[in-house]
Specification:
mainly alpha; Arc Repressor Mutant, subunit A; two-stranded antiparallel sheet; 2 strands
Length: 143
């Protein structure tokens, strides 16, 4: 098989494997009444801390009006709190509430528990190979 065809085949197989794994991990999520967009916003707040709605929209790659609706829904669920910006009266600061932090923690725990079970089914050599692959994939993703 020529190198370029082999690389395309690797790219295709890797893309498909990542998509399938991501789909399985998402299926493990707690709180089925929360959309993936809302979970993504909660995860960003969990990772980055308090942000303005505009900053959150930029990090999520959505338009501010869309993020305003997401924040409103999350606020209604009790997962985020909104407070006035300390220096700009036109702005607000959005942060995870205690319930929101708990929700994200539970979601992460459910996914990791599922993944831990799958990893336990592998040999030590397979787990070591996946450990190296995770480092490479993380580097490829720019993190």
């Amino acid at each position: 098989m020529p190198d370029d065809l082999r690389e395309r085949s690797l790219a295709s197989r890797l893309r498909l494997a990542v998509v399938r794994l991501n789909r399985r991990l998402r299926a493990q999520r707690a709180g089925q009444g929360v959309t993936l967009t809302q979970i993504s916003a909660l995860s960003t707040l969990y990772k980055c801390g308090a942000l303005t709605p505009g900053q959150l929209a930029a990090k999520e790659g959505v338009q501010p009006p869309s993020m305003t609706r997401v924040i409103a829904a999350l606020e209604e669920l009790g997962y985020v709190d909104r407070r006035p910006h300390p220096t700009d009266g036109r702005q607000a600061i959005v942060e995870l509430s205690e319930a929101g932090s708990g929700f994200v923690h539970d979601a992460i725990s459910a996914r990791e528990a599922w993944l831990d079970q799958r990893l336990a089914e592998l040999t030590a050599e397979e787990r070591e190979l996946l450990s190296k692959a995770a480092e490479i994939i993380d580097r490829m993703a720019g993190n």
